[in-house]
Amino acid sequence: MPHPVIPNTTDSTPPVVSSRAILAGGPFRRLLAIRLTSQLADGWFQAGLGGALLFNPEKQSSPVAIAAGFAILLLPYSVLGPYVGVLLDRWDRRASLSFANIARAVMVLPCAALLWSGLQGVGFAVSALIVIAINRFFLAGLSASLPHVVEDSRLVPANALASTLGTICYSIGLFSSAVVIGLHVVDGDRHGYGLICASAAVGYLLSGLLARGLFRRDELGPLAGERHTGSLVQALGEVFRGMVEGARHLAGRRKAARVMLLQAGYRYLYGILTLATLLLYSRYFGNSTDRSGQSLLSLGLVVILGAAGVALAAVLTPLAVRWWDARRWLIAVVAGVGVVVLAFGLPFRQTPLLVAVFLINVAAQSIKIIVDATLQHECDDAYRGRIFSVNDTLFNLLWVGGLFTAALALPGNGRSVVGLVATALAFMLLAAWFATASRRPDQPTPA
Question: Structure pTM?
Answer without folding.
Answer: 0.75
